[in-house]
Amino acid sequence: MKTYAEMTREELQGEKDRLQARYDKYMSQNLDLNMARGKPSVEQEEASIEMLDILNSRSNLNTEEGMDVLNYGNLTGLKETKRLFSEILEVPEEKIVIGGNSSLNMMFDYLMQCYAMGAGEGLEPWVLQGGCKFLCPSPGYDRHFGIAEYLGLELIPVPMTDIGPDMDLVEELAKDPKVKGMFCVPKYANPTGQSYSDETVKRIATMEAAPDFRVIWDNAYVIHDLTGRHDDVLDLLSECEKVGNPDRAVLFASTSKVTFPGAGVAVLAANEDNLKWILKRMDKQTIGSDKINQLRHVRYFSNGLPDVKAHMDTLAGIITPHFNVVLASFERKLRPRDICSWTNPNGGYFISLDCMEGTATRVYNLCKECGVTLTTVGATFPYGKDPKDSNIRIAPTYPSLEDLAIATDVLCIAIRLAALEKLLND
Amino acid sequence: MKTYAEMTREELQGEKDRLQARYDKYMSQNLDLNMARGKPSVEQEEASIEMLDILNSRSNLNTEEGMDVLNYGNLTGLKETKRLFSEILEVPEEKIVIGGNSSLNMMFDYLMQCYAMGAGEGLEPWVLQGGCKFLCPSPGYDRHFGIAEYLGLELIPVPMTDIGPDMDLVEELAKDPKVKGMFCVPKYANPTGQSYSDETVKRIATMEAAPDFRVIWDNAYVIHDLTGRHDDVLDLLSECEKVGNPDRAVLFASTSKVTFPGAGVAVLAANEDNLKWILKRMDKQTIGSDKINQLRHVRYFSNGLPDVKAHMDTLAGIITPHFNVVLASFERKLRPRDICSWTNPNGGYFISLDCMEGTATRVYNLCKECGVTLTTVGATFPYGKDPKDSNIRIAPTYPSLEDLAIATDVLCIAIRLAALEKLLND
């Protein structure tokens, strides 16, 4: 089978006509399919549904330390919740603070604190320093970039590689004292699905940077393996401690993609001084997060990490077929044309697809017109602008396998049509 | 019976000796009693305990609009949650935003936004204006003052009267463009238990103030009646709208003292422009708060306000006897001595006691040494300093009636001892 590069103009035109006919057929079907957000499916929710039966009016509602979870109190989280996350994150309990239902909320609040009050005792607030910048490995998570943009920080894109952000560039950029930090999804990154190498983690810990440079280490997919293979990522907190930069990083995670997306438990972890600084704020911000939901989680995973891992295996059994539908379709329909590339991650929630440069927006629109919603092109880049107009984030979890097969077929047709339009117009 | 003012020095000394003997007797009992925080009792929690049975794995987990509460989505709150709070707060649904489990958290986040990003579109952030001040009706809620102090605002005390803060002084102070707002607990105020008169509310709405002056209208006790009598307070949001100051106020409330203190549902309400400004921040801060807990609440109060009111009547039946133990004891043991005054509120969580000037710290310490913990003296004033060393906030809800009777007896002895020490030393 010829690649598009090998085809004559006539062959390309013939291919385009054939695909256009298939596209038109889909157009007539009034599809309404969505691959835009990394949203767990109903089957995934069902896998946790018995968590709703864990606590009822007849339950013992005291923690292992004898605290009544219904009442006020407990700023940093229940001891048993910390222990569970300590096992999941491989971070000591005493570094952990439990939050509400959203790790995004914890990140926002932390960055807001750095911005308005400074990143630590005696450090000038970013708002008063003016002109502060933040490194954004791209493609990355749009909601990360959204926080920094809201705070008026300048977003600096850094290309992602298959072992993390381009560290030569990061090291160069971080020398600027106005560069105040970096967003990282170190494991099964959103959206590339790739993980940071040990060298990347060590370089982040060691590099020269401002004293108030802060890495937002969003370990959202820390236990979210999909395949037999799984990636291992070094713990940045201890790496930073080792090299004398203990305050460089703050870790975030949640059970949003373990139990219930809208009602999980979020967590942060940090070294001593950062923790003190964060708790100084939280002590004024709240009396404490929802302890009933914390207890529900720890009682549901009563054996700790082994229960969580078994649960994640169940989820992988649900999710992996979704990934496989997309990947098999890409392999069959796109690989032979040699017009794009995509990632095949060992875990996480996304496949990152790079279309032919300059065609991603066209692909998005072709899909949209046909009733297939993709993540907005550019969303994975700072300011929503993909400089190559090439990247599309595929979120295969939410649609049913049947819908996903159709949506992926439409997507493959759109990718090929957009490439053909470009090749024929050049 | 003679008041202390009518007693001779010898009579005072005799009284002191008698009380000292009773105090010493308590000292030997190793008491451990706490009247410090406005914490609901276990019986109050029990009154809501069946809320834990409302949702389980067999429940319909869709909202009335068909949204799955387990998954992501819904920034501002479920339609049915807004409707419930609309009835409770007497504020239109479209002004309402639902939060997590803590209204304090919503207040903190709002004030942080005003501080770091400004109080509205085009308004300079308070942090950049520098030297901003906040009015603190006192005695008031220590956690309010804590937020403003954390942000480095200058706290300006304003004396409370039995119809709200001293409005002559508020009007005068608010003319200063650096004065950026005021904390108000308009109904059954913390700690006085008194409510704002219509005139007070109207004067707050109408007075001259900076364009970014914001009233934190913490309606924490909006339906928390204790007696047959109940106070009515005007809606500040609509009063502000009427007089052309629509952005002056933001309202906060929660079910922390309706259902579960640690796992209730918090809410804010604001007029159009404030709401837009707040949501602009929240849209970056979170995907949405815990919808399962929202659904649990609205299903528990399935008939809306009548169910909530019946529930509050049940709670009043539990709480009122606690107030009565304290008030009856004060009436019998303190009234005849004419050395202090206290409030007798129609609702809320506190009794505010004014001891003889200059003796509150001594009363606190006498109680403390005897194993009875009171709210820290001064906590109800900015910077934790009561200028008259007189006010003590009594929180009668949490201890059992038996414990409360003992604690109150110790307190009355301490109040009288401290007064006698002062009178004998003068």
Instruction: Give the rounded overall mean pLDDT of chain A.
Output: 97
Secondary structure class of chain A reads alpha/beta
Helix content of chain A: 40-55%
CATH topology of the largest domain in chain A: Aspartate Aminotransferase, domain 2
Q: Could you characterize what this model shows?
A:
Chain A is an alpha/beta fold and about 425 residues long. Chain A has 14 helices and 13 strands. The first copy, chain A, has helices at about 10-25, 40-45, 80-90, 105-115, 125-130, 140-150, 165-175, 200-205, 235-240, 270-285, 290-300, 305-335, 360-370, 400-425, and strands at about 35, 95-100, 135-140, 155-160, 165, 180-185, 215-220, 250-255, 265-270, 340, 350-355, 370-375, 390-395. In chain A, helix 1 runs antiparallel to helix 14 and helix 12 crosses helix 14. The longest helix of chain A has 29 residues, at about 305-335. In chain A, the strands form three sheets. Chain A has an eight-stranded mixed sheet with strand order 2-9-8-7-6-3-4-5, with helices on both faces. The first copy, chain A, folds into two domains: about 5-45 and about 310-425, Aspartate Aminotransferase, domain 1, CATH 3.90.1150.10; about 60-300, Aspartate Aminotransferase, domain 2.
Features:
homodimer; 426 residues; alpha/beta; Aspartate Aminotransferase, domain 1; Aspartate Aminotransferase, domain 2; three-stranded antiparallel beta sheet; 14 helices; 13 strands
